[in-house]
Amino acid sequence: MKEQYVISIMSHDGIGIVQAVSHAINALGGEIADLRQSVLRGYFTMILLAAFDSSTTAPAIRERLARVRVPGIPPLEVSVIAAAEDAAKEEANPLANAYVLTASGAQQAGLVAKVSALCAENGINILDLSTAVAQGRYIMILIVDPGPLAGDIGQLHHKLERFGAEHELTLVLQHYDVFRATNEVGIR
Question: Is residue 139 in a domain?
Fold first, then answer.
């Protein structure tokens, strides 16, 4: 029987981290199911879900990954926890009912807190969030599951318009499929 673990890795960025981590997991007999990796201003982060034989424990995984060395990179920060039983049953494509919410406005303190509060207060789950500052403007791109408001997107649009006016933000909500279709670049 396989045991699922959620593994989180953080480090300074450098070439070869993904290879070294995935090799170490493979050497333990682990199978990576899902993985998200990102670099933020020179810092590498990765979170993944992997299945291991039941004889492989969280401390053994943590110890093996803590030994991973990548030239020029300090030791990795590693966290390993047992996954909830329902993690394996979760929908493989969580974006099927997802929406993309973009928020932009003048750079000011607390925008992530304000927008995330709006989401939490309305039962909207944030699946992914990226932010950037460009030319004095703060830009947020969120992938969200509208939860209870999925059945009334018009009501959600109204709440977003009111929120945007109150906080001097431009908010745009699009179904993920529409966003992807209108923003993908095709290479022929």
Answer: yes
Domain extent for 139: 99-183
Q: Which of 53, 54, 71, 64 is nearest to 7 (CA)?
A: 64
pLDDT, tens only, 59-80? 999 999 999 999 999 999 999 9
Q: Choose one of 30, 56, 87: the last residue of a domain.
A: 87
Q: How are the residues of the chain apportioned to helix, strand and coil, as percentages rounded to the nearest 5?
A: 35, 40, 30
Is residue 122 located within the same domain as residue 78?
Answer: no
The answer to whether residue 29 scores a pLDDT higher than 60 is yes
Whether 28 contacts 60, CB under 8 Å: yes
The structure's pTM equals: 0.75
Return the pLDDT at 150: 78
Q: Which two tokens stand for residue 138?
A: 């703060």
Same domain, residue pair 78 and 6: yes
